[in-house]
């Protein structure tokens, strides 16, 4: 189970029994519920969650609370790999008929790679979200920092990249990311900024 160095120090989680672990197909419906915190046009669909958690399950982490009836997902980071140094529209897409494609084989369409590139050296963060009751208090920032630590400790990659709205640029800068300026990504109407954090390559 990934260590929770920053989450352990988060006062907003004090007294709560929580843990961090890689997500699996069994978590898809819980991910859809958590994702509802986003505006509708920015939400990941159940099918795309299934694709991402099938293609790159070790790159997605969930923050869970232990509760008497059932453990509850309260936040997640969803990732995949891309060969681009920043997020692209292609990396955010899901190949059509992906279930019938050979496992682990990247798909190119119109000159750009679609979806997960298993050989990519950029870890692309496509969804960072907390349920509304756990927003604020620094939990999201701690989750991002622990995700970056998890990548550094366990993955072969050169950088972590994401796109952010202008009002979240400062949030990601406080987690160590650099703002590279306006992104070319047109997802949900565009207006994003490219954020990157070098992590080096694991030996």
UniProtKB/TrEMBL annotation:
The keyword Transferase applies. It comes from the Eukaryota. Keywords: Acyltransferase, Transferase. One of its GO terms (molecular function) is aralkylamine N-acetyltransferase activity. Pfam families: Acetyltransf_10. Residues 18-200 form the N-acetyltransferase domain. One of its GO terms (cellular component) is cytoplasm. CDD domains: NAT_SF. PANTHER family: SEROTONIN N-ACETYLTRANSFERASE (PTHR10908:SF0). This is N-acetyltransferase domain-containing protein. It comes from Penicillium cinerascens.
């Amino acid at each position: 189970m990934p260590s929770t160095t920053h989450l352990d120090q988060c006062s907003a989680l004090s007294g709560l029994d929580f843990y961090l672990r890689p997500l699996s197909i069994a978590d898809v419906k819980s991910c859809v519920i958590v994702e509802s915190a986003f505006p509708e046009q920015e939400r990941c669909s159940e099918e795309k969650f299934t694709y991402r958690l099938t293609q790159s399950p070790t790159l997605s982490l969930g923050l869970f609370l232990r509760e008497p009836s059932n453990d509850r997902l309260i936040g997640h980071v969803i990732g995949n790999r891309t060969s681009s140094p920043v997020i692209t529209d292609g990396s955010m897409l899901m190949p059509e008929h992906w279930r019938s494609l050979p496992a682990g084989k990247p798909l190119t369409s119109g000159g750009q790679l679609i979806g997960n590139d298993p050989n990519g050296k950029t870890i692309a963060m496509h969804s960072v979200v907390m349920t509304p009751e756990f927003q604020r208090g620094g939990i999201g920032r701690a989750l991002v920092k622990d995700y970056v630590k998890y990548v550094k400790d366990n993955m072969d990659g050169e950088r972590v990249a994401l796109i952010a709205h202008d009002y979240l640029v400062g949030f990601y800068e406080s987690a160590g990311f650099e703002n590279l300026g306006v992104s070319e990504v047109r997802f949900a109407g565009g207006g994003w900024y490219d954020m990157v954090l070098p992590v080096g390559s694991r030996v």
